[in-house]
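Collaborator request, handled under Task 6.
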Amino acid sequence: MHLPISSRLVVQTLTVLLVFGALSAFVGSALAIAFNGAGIPQEYLATSPFTTYVVPGLILGLVVGGTQLAAAIALLTRQGSALLLSAVAGFGMLIWIFVELVMIKQYSWLQTAYFVLGGLELIFVLALLGIIPALVECR
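Structure tokens returned to the collaborator:
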């Protein structure tokens, strides 16, 4: 997979975003499971199907963190599926935040930050696919 310099910069930036997303999902997952929400009030779960933070923590770590990590590894190893995995990871992050907001009916600035993270991942995927060509220099 030979990419122009600007495309490489987009790939590197996307990889950094995915690694950050994976690491923060794994940390959030570990805290949610080990400390039952790590200080997040239990009352937030009242409008959700969960009684503890264990299952949401597992979903956060395995699904959100797992897809972020898989996409980052695919980009680093130049796999043909890298952009597909990156899109899945970006959508996964957006879906996670959307469902979280719907279920717990509470807002934190972190939700905006992670929603932006997922959105940026998708924008970079679209740029690398040539759908947003202004972001990537084509030679």
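The cover message to the collaborator said: "DSSP finds four helices and no strands in the chain. The chain has a mean pLDDT of 92. Please let us know whether this matches your experimental observations."
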